[in-house]
Amino acid sequence: MKADKAGTSPLVMVIVEDLLDQDDPKGYIEDVTNHGCVSGTCAELIYYKDTCAFYGKHKEEIWEMAGECQQAGGYKTVLEFLATLNGAENADTVDQFENLMAWFAYEETTRKVAGMLDIEI
Is the alpha carbon torsion for 5, 44, 94, 104 positive or negative? Predict the structure, then answer.
């Protein structure tokens, strides 16, 4: 992941900021990791205009993350990995694809932050 001068990825900082806004940060992490963004848990990533903007802002880091998951999972290509994501079968438009990528990145980064905080999920 691309890091800022402090060594923290911009996506990690998004999650940290979202956690600071929660009354129950651990519960929020559990909701995101167990139910995904599709459940509406992340209010900032419900509408296409928001998920597409999120993807546009973080797409380099998102693709880097997808590449890491592709390699870790032993997939031949990033697209082969992306096809395994929940909801990939419904990504028939650019907006739907960018939504899929935004949700993937948010959920995966939330898992990483949970690990950094020693929160079992």
Answer: positive
For residue range 42-71, list pLDDT tens digits in order.
999 999 999 999 999 999 999 999 999 999
Name residue 17's amino acid. Answer: E
In a domain? residue 4: no
Structural domains in the chain (count): 1
Question: For the chain, what is the largest distance between any 2 Cα atoms, rounded to a whole number of angstroms?
Answer: 41
In a domain, 3, yes or no: no
Q: Are 88 and 36 in contact (CB under 8 A)?
A: no
Q: Is 73 helix (H, G, I), strand (E, B) or coil?
A: helix
Show the domain range for 42.
10-116
The set of residues, in sequence order, having a beta carbon less than 8 Å from that of 68 and lying 6+ positions away, is none
